[in-house]
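dude i think i finally got it to work??
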Amino acid sequence: MHIGVQYVAFQWPSGSPDIASQVADIARAVDESGFASLWVEDHFFQIPAVGPAEDPMLEAYSTLGYLAAVTRRVRLGVLVSGNTYRNPGLLVKVVTSVDVLSQGRAYLGVGTGWLRREHEGLGFDCPPVAERFERLEETLQIARQMWSDENGPFQGRHYRLAETLCSPAPVSKPHPPILVGGMGEQKTLRLVARYADACNFYIVDRAKGVAPMRRKLDILRARCDEVGRSFDSIERTVLLGTSLATGGETSADVIHLCSELSAAGFQHAIFMLTPGHERELVETLATDVLPEAAEL
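look at this
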């Protein structure tokens, strides 16, 4: 099993002057320790589950470009881009640029977008859920077209592009992996089966164990069968929190969870970095968990 980590906060005691050095130091530690991936969130305000809206939050792709410059091997992604925050052509162009500048280490992670406060706060439209899914599907179609030899127009219900030219082409072959985030059985998993190279689920309640996650994978397998797609062609990732850095659980607990997730069918576990304890969590995961996870 691969192990990745995700920044969820950018708050350190000395404030803004310290953010760049802290982000870089953690990223270098992740890169040098052998983690498979490093992710950022796509929010403009801090989300309620982590802290007050006023807490520092960096724009995702500016941050990803910075991470590309301070790392050498770890794969980089946004988990996940809010589709409503960028025109799809711009989103694909930005991810392509990160992929080129990182020499082929980018993911395109994308979802419908959801946090209404930041939509309204910064002036982004937040359509009804059904329309957001329609827009997400068109974005996935646009990404696949821009990363193909087809440079002609795209005419959708919500997006119209006169040219889908994308030069330079991505370094990743055939293109950066397209990851769709979410676990909705009727819409999201159908989009995963039809368009994505990877999916991302999240553990809502650790007390329930991995059984609900296993059921979601069974449904994804059925969605793949519906479109004639190989389930094994999709990378299965899962996002989760851990209290390892604050003593709430042990390395053995985390290794056991990774083992259960692997047995359920997941290939890539992504841990949210504990605010204020990011470096400690990276070091403990690197020392205790990565060697064991590599054997799963």
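The longest strand covers residues 2-7.
im so relieved honestly
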